[in-house]
Automatic annotation (TrEMBL):
Disordered as annotated region, ranges: 1-30
InterPro entries: Homeodomain-like_sf, HTH-type_TetR-like_transc_reg, HTH_TetR, NicS_C, Tet_transcr_reg_TetR-rel_C_sf
Keyword DNA-binding attached: yes
Record bears the keyword DNA-binding: yes
Protein name: TetR family transcriptional regulator
Amino acid sequence: MVKRTPIPWQRYDKENKNVKSPEPAESGKRNTMNKLLAAARNEFGSKGLGGARVETIAKEAGVTKQLVYHYYGSKESLFVAVLDESSESIMSELVALEIEQLTPPAALRAMLNRFFDQYCHDPLLGALALEGIRYHHAHETPRNRFLEMAPGLITKVDDILQRGAATGEFKKEINPRLLLATAALVTTGWFTNRYSMSTLTGLNTASPEGMAIWRQHSADFILAGISVAPGCEVQAPR
């Protein structure tokens, strides 16, 4: 009788008498990195880059500090990875937003509301955005997913503007990049500049009432700036 030599990468289950293959190493690594990114996001979002501790992140993720440095090299590189993941999540959701069946004003309002809701539903996003701005101002950072995915969002906004101009609801030749930048600042400023917003509006930025008022106002403000008044025909600037 020939004795069979077990294949090294297989595991024998004595109870079920089955030979099982383990999870691929790459899958295990990805799961570990996902846990690290989630733990790092909480740490950076609550304490900032300067206050965050790799030891705390490693403990929360259930790994060693050495493994964190093995995967990311430094705390700063891990922070950049967190920003990149957050950017990809935000942009992917906006680009995939199904609004093509809506009228141009309704489609743009839905997108503006989603800008606001992303920050509203994620308490850490505003803090991460501010910390990311400070970091990018002081460091040269590699090309990231935000830059790669931005053209898709610009095209989506431009399609809405073109449809609105064709129906006579929007002014002609609105620059989609400028509109998108303005919209992002107006809607998300509620979360990234809470002190000034609260002082100027007299509203609590963390209250449901304050958030509801700014959510509607910011969308109304952007739409009013590009909409054609009923009965008026706007000539494109020369």
